[in-house]
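job 3f2a | input accepted
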Amino acid sequence: MYKLTSLLLLSLIFVFSSCDKTTPVEDDPALVKYFGTWEFTKTDYGHYWDYVTTPNGTETVYTQMETIEWQRTGTVSMGRVEGELKIQWSGSSNDMHFATVLNTQGGLMCADNCENIPYVENGQGANNSSGEYSISDSTYMIDLGWSGGGSTVHTWDIQGKKL
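job 3f2a | predicted structure (163 res):
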């Protein structure tokens, strides 16, 4: 009975010790400068113009309005793999995505949870990588696109400042 128990115990130890063990990714030294608490702001820039007839002809009247849609405290931390950041605009999991750092100038590309980025739906540049998406040791910027027509155009972005 003692030998059977010992054999069973040794078998269990072998099985559990040979299981796949994933180790967490250590902080990437090249990305540590981005880690910390950040203040993020989503802004809508409205551009309006109208054509007014005057005695001197037609003049264009231009107005710009800036509306802060939200302002939140969030974090930037190590992602799941080397070269990746976890960017969280607030405590909500809906405000989080992973971004790959493309170069030493801080160019970013979304790697996962990209649906959480509020790109302008049906707007010019929606889900398009042609807009600015970058980070430095003190600033963050993502261009969300633009939409409009006629005499109105709106552009949106999210900017961040490291606290």
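job 3f2a | The beta strands are 36-54, 57-78, 84-88, 96-101, 108-112, 133-135, 139-149, 152-162.
job 3f2a | closed
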